[in-house]
Write a structure and sequence with these properties.
By secondary structure, this protein is α+β, with helices and mostly antiparallel strands. The protein is built from 15 helices and eight strands. The structure holds iron/sulfur cluster. Residues 126-127, 170-171, 176-178, 181, 183-184, 187, 189-190, 195 line the site of iron/sulfur cluster.
Length: 352
């Protein structure tokens, strides 16, 4: 991206304002055209309104363009075109919030301010295992404190760029590359099998339609369950390994193979059963999804903190109705399991 490694505060500001409500692929051309036509803030400040609005055409959210022009003119008039160079003074510019102020402060001036964008929230929530919703005031404060304590104060710009890139390329939202991730030894989400549950968004928790894909992993007659925690539905009930998606997914053998490899580092397994689509209507939301019964050859690290249980024990555990509906159609689970696998014994079975 042309703004990567950029030190000119004007260009950083311009790229961030353009990208605020716009996808990178769409914003790229606009950024290039703006920089070409107005290479400095003084040039932008002198431009005619119509000309700037014409260049902005198609990007939407015209208040961004209005703020851009007003700010450029203010900086030209009051500061002779010199961009503000402290976090607080940058934060006072129209349309600039903490994220843009931190980005400009750290990239242009190497000031110790940690950026918090969607990528950073996701990385921090997973690595530190934090389930406070990121879209609440409490969550924002908690993540700001973590981000700030994590910041490399000698190289804040480089650190900020690195964590954002890491979130965009490795710790991706849907299928993060956990199996080859250099953070996995210390990543709490990875080590507790919670990668798909983090970060938590209040908005998602209150969403009307949610898609749950459950993986009933089996290793030598043992299955893996965990107790649901956090503020979500079905608190304290048990569940299998969950992959929640914001939309319905079409699974096929190829997708399942890629998902197992990227998510769990598993390449050898046997898919025993895929359930039909099932759903449950709750008071405020509808849960839909499927179950995959998968036989494993070894225990992936993500399941080590799950409770290993036999088919008989499963019958005595409390599950949400959504899962019970599936279990009722699975008589094979009730057969007595052979002795637990060596690696399974590492975590203690619950007493029931
Ligand atoms: S192990 Fe997975 S969840 Fe944890 S930081 Fe790496 S990619 Fe993200």
């Amino acid at each position: 991206m042309p703004w990567k490694g950029e030190k000119d505060p004007y260009r950083i500001w311009l790229s961030e304002v353009i990208l605020q409500q716009t996808r990178v692929e769409q914003g790229l051309g606009y950024y290039r055209r703006f920089v070409e036509r107005y290479p400095t803030i003084l040039k932008l400040a002198k431009a005619k309104d119509d000309e700037v609005y014409k260049l902005w055409e198609g990007l939407g959210y015209y208040s961004r363009c209005k703020n851009l022009l007003a700010t450029a003119r203010e900086i030209a008039a009051d500061r002779k075109g010199k961009f503000p160079d402290t976090y607080d003074s940058i934060l006072q510019l129209k349309g600039v919030g903490p994220y843009i102020a931190s980005a400009i402060s750290s990239f242009a001036y190497n000031l110790p301010y940690a950026v918090l964008d969607g990528n950073v929230f996701r990385v921090l929530a997973r690595v530190y295992g934090v389930d406070t919703p990121i879209d609440t005031t409490g969550g924002k404060n908690e993540f700001t404190a973590i981000a700030s304590s994590n910041l490399d104060r000698q190289n804040p710009g480089e650190y900020n760029q690195a964590i954002m890139d890491f979130g965009a390329t490795v710790c991706k939202p849907m299928v993060p590359a956990c199996s080859s991730c250099p953070m996995r030894k210390i990543c709490k989400a990875f080590n507790n099998g919670l990668v798909n549950q983090l970060p938590v968004k209040e908005k998602v928790l209150r969403k009307k339609y949610r898609w749950f894909y459950y993986f009933l992993f089996e290793l030598e007659g043992t299955y893996f369950v965990r107790r649901r925690t956090g503020n979500d539905i079905w608190q304290n009930l048990n569940e299998f390994y969950l992959f929640e998606s914001p939309e319905e997914l079409e699974w096929d053998a190829q997708k399942l193979n890629a998902w197992m490899r990227d998510q769990l580092g598993v390449t050898r397994f046997r898919l025993k059963h895929i359930s039909p689509l099932q759903s449950q209507q709750l008071t405020h939301q509808k849960i839909q999804g499927q179950f995959f019964q998968v036989e494993l050859r070894r225990l992936p690290q993500q399941l080590e903190h799950y409770d290993p249980v036999t088919g008989k024990q499963i019958a005595r555990l409390a599950f949400p109705r959504f899962i019970n509906q599936f279990l009722e159609g699975m008589p094979a689970l009730e057969k007595p399991a052979p002795a637990a696998h060596e690696s399974v014994r590492k975590s203690k079975p619950r007493s029931h």
